[in-house]
Design goal:
Largest sheet: 8 strands, mixed
Strand content: 25-35%
Number of domains: 2
CATH class of the largest domain: Alpha Beta
CATH architecture of the largest domain: 2-Layer Sandwich
Structural class: alpha+beta
Shape: globular
Bound molecules: (3R)-3-hydroxy-3-methyl-5-(phosphonooxy)pentanoic acid
Helix content: 25-40%
Length: 331
């Protein structure tokens, strides 16, 4: 077994049809499949260095020690890797988010995909993408999708051990080179984590069962809209799915409301732009920021319209990107 220092980059991804509900909370197994688009440039750059002298794993994120809740998940992923590699050596890890100020971008997705990629190679393993995807999933469900580039589907799977719950690429990034805008909206108070939100929805939401049934239908409709590169059909399914997820959140007890007034402002702006003929659509994760997909030729005016909305702090612009990859060590 060869141990070495390895760096990997993994991108963020944005779900087009969402993962919101788990059938297993330890293994992060979803109740329904989901589809995402992988972002270019925005993500996590992670270094993993196994060090025989260390008594436990240590990790810093953006130059600060990772909190206990985060460390539990990191150790879970590292534990699986060590078992596969037959090693008991601990590691030092350092991760930088390439958009530190970004809100509304799932940093846990890129973080655990980068961790799975860097750490598996650091412990001398050369895993295929399906295995890396399952490994990343055990840290954060949505991380399973950040292993792949382009448009990606995470299969919910049926097995209790999660061995069939992994992501695969539906279409490469160049299939439909859309521009992705992130309208960042200031959050009013401390965010409820996706893990607690999903628990609340499953135990209390009035609409939860219908939501999960709708997800499987939306996955099929989304595949078809992506295959046809049809923005009208994509908007139908992507906006409908995001609204349904937030409806489920709002119907949870206690109700979960991530939106701010500017969130609603962006929703109306995007719908008006589309009614006037601009090919674009929006989606919203577990936060107040809104992600907008748009044909590159219309990106400029759409970004301007979003930036003009009261309460929108910044509008980030990116595109569909490649999946997780190793980064050569310098020197
Ligand atoms: O992977 P988690 O636990 O961060 O959950 C992600 C939840 C959503 O971002 C709201 C939806 C999704 O599919 O990414």
């Amino acid at each position: 077994m060869s141990l070495q220092r390895v760096t990997a980059f993994a991108p963020s991804n944005i779900a087009l049809t969402k993962y919101w509900g788990k059938r297993d909370h330890t293994l992060n197994l979803p109740l329904a499949s989901s589809i995402s688009v992988t972002l270019s440039e925005l993500g996590s750059l992670t270094v993993c260095a196994p060090e025989p002298g260390l008594s436990h794993d240590v990790m810093a994120v953006d130059d600060r020690p990772l909190d206990d809740a985060g460390m539990i998940k990191v150790r879970r992923v590292l534990g699986i890797i060590r078992e596969m590699a037959g090693s008991d050596v601990h590691a030092g890890l350092n991760s930088i988010n390439t958009v530190p100020t970004a809100r509304g971008l799932a940093s846990s997705a890129s973080a655990f995909a980068a961790l799975a990629m860097a750490a598996s190679h650091a412990y001398g393993l050369d895993l295929d993408k399906a295995t890396l995807s399952r490994l990343a999933r055990t840290g954060s469900g949505s991380a399973s999708r950040s292993i792949h580039g382009g448009f990606v589907q995470w299969e919910c799977g049926q097995k209790a051990d999660g061995s069939d719950s992994e992501a695969r690429q539906l279409f490469a990034a160049d299939h439909w080179p859309l521009t992705i805008l992130v309208a960042q909206v200031r959050d009013g108070k401390k965010k409820v984590s996706s893990t607690s939100g999903m628990r609340m929805a499953a135990s209390d939401s009035l609409t939860f069962r219908g939501w999960i049934e709708q997800c499987e239908k939306d996955v099929i409709a989304c595949q078809a809209a992506l295959a046809a590169k049809d923005m009208e059909r994509l908007a139908d399914v992507v906006e409908g799915n995001a609204m349904a997820m937030h409806g489920t959140m709002m119907a949870s007890r206690p109700p979960l409301l991530y939106w701010q007034p500017a969130t609603v402002g962006v929703i109306h702006t995007v719908r008006n732009l589309r009614a006037e003929g601009t090919a674009c659509c929006f989606t919203i994760d577990a936060g107040s920021s809104v992600v907008v997909l748009v044909e590159p030729s219309d990106a400029g005016p759409v970004a301007e319209a979003l930036a003009a909305i009261d309460g929108v702090e910044t509008v980030l612009q990116t595109r569909v990107g490649e999946g997780a990859r190793l980064v050569p060590e310098r020197g």
